[in-house]
Amino acid sequence: EEPHKIRAAFRLACVSSFVLTFIMDFLIPMPMFFSHYVFSKGFFTAWVVISFIWVFCSSFVSTALPIWEVRGFFAEFFREVAGDLGVKR
Fold first, then answer.
1. Range of the domain at 1
2. Higher per-residue confidence, 64 vs 28
3. Residue 58 pLDDT > 70, yes or no?
4. 47 and 86 assigned to the same domain
5. Is residue 87 pLDDT above 90, yes or no?
6. Which residues form the signal peptide (predicted)?
7. Whether 56 contacts 49, CB under 8 Å
8. Which residues contact 79 (CB under 8 A, 6 or more apart)?
9. Residue range 61-86: average pLDDT?
10. Residue 1: its pLDDT value, please?
11. Cα dist. 47→37, 50, 53 in Å?
12. Distance between CA atoms of 6 and 10, rounded to whole angstroms?
């Protein structure tokens, strides 16, 4: 890749991570905390369920996407290893 494209992608990743961290850690929870409102059981349950769904989806994406991106490399690697071991195709 070209260095300026890599720098631009890095800058985008840094800004995106800062913005998402700010939103998820401060912008959403702080108004809820400072309101001193006691949330209903239903609202709290929904909040926890949505949080768990978010965590599981982000865990899946951050695990599955890198594996998916290198699938061609793994296929070629295992073909090479099988060839070195004398396994017939």
1. 1-37
2. 64
3. yes
4. yes
5. no
6. none
7. no
8. 89
9. 91
10. 67
11. 14, 5, 10
12. 6
Please give the structure tokens belonging to residue 5: 């494209």
If you search the block for the tokens 């409102």, which residue do you land on? Answer: 37
Given a contact cutoff of 8 angstroms between Cβ atoms, the answer to whether 47 and 39 are in contact is: yes
Structure-token match 């949330």, residue found: 39
* Mean pLDDT of the residues in the chain: 91
Number of domains in the chain: 2
The residue-averaged pLDDT of 4-25 equals 94
The sign of the CA dihedral 65, 68, 70, 74 is positive
Do 32 and 57 fall within a single domain? no
Backbone CA torsion sign across 57, 20, 48, 50? negative
Q: For residue 86, give the amino acid letter.
A: G
Q: What is the mean pLDDT of residues 53-70?
A: 94
Do 32 and 63 sit in the same domain of this protein?
Answer: no
Token pair, residue 4, equals 């300026």
